Amino acid sequence: MTIRVLVAEDQAAVRAGLVLILSSAPDIEVVGEAGDGEAAVRLARGLRPDLVLMDVQMPRLDGVSATRQVVAEGLADVLVLTTFDLDSYVFGALRAGASGFLLKNTEARELLEAVRTVARGEGLIAPAVTRRLIAEFAGATPRRASGTADPAVLDSLTRREREVLGCLGEGLSNAEIATRLAMAEATVKTHVSRLLAKLGLRSRVQAAVLAQELGV
């Protein structure tokens, strides 16, 4: 199946480069371009892409708010673009339901693979980068300082699901979790799906941030 992508980036040159790279892949189709957050939401409603490649800092409506609207309306998955400033925009977008994040200086091949990864439902991309992001976030922000995470939300999880959640908090991939917990990768996928549903989360990245906040 062709992956239909909407590119939302306010810098025209950067946006053109992203479109060029994405269009080079036979299994990816760029169905629209947006130069600000409001346009991104409007086009997502009209085009219903599979994925929105979303810059976090845009005019008129920032990427966090745009992501929240796109996810809340079930319009598409969102892959966040960041310069790795580690500011509140990045984590706000992840909490808003973004399925993953990507550095703007990522190589073309990695960009294409990231889009395919998110399209497959594997929201946590580039585990090594994810671990660094989560670690820096956890080190810079006292756990539960924002008051957004309540330990009681974990009560519905089984022991195994808690273990899987802890692995997500470390940025592990399904294959790495399978090795760590000595289970089949397919079983890991099942546990991830169930814990996301129980916790009311849309992405593995949201689960990873929650795990860090609660110290799972």
Task: Describe this entry's structure for a reader.
The modification 4-aspartylphosphate is found at residue 55. It comes from Streptomyces rhizosphaericola. InterPro entries: CheY-like_superfamily, NreC/VraR/RcsB-like_REC, Sig_transdc_resp-reg_C-effctor, Sig_transdc_resp-reg_receiver, Tscrpt_reg_LuxR_C, WalR-like. This is Response regulator transcription factor. Residues 4-119 form the Response regulatory domain. The protein has 216 residues and is of the alpha/beta class. Helices cover 52% and strands 13% of the residues. A 5-stranded parallel beta sheet has the order 2-1-3-4-5, with helices on both faces. α2 (37-47) packs parallel to α3 (63-72). The radius of gyration is 17 Å and the shape is globular. It starts with a strand and ends with a helix. 44% of the residues are buried. Mean pLDDT is 84; it is low at 141-147.
Q: Compute the average pLDDT.
A: 84
The oligomeric status of these chains comes to single chain
Number of strands: 5
Global geometry: globular
Helix content: 40-55%
As a percent range, the share of strand residues is 5-15%
- Main beta sheet: strand number and arrangement? 5 strands, parallel
Number of helices: 10
Mind telling me the C-alpha Rg?
17 Å
Distance between the termini: 37 Å
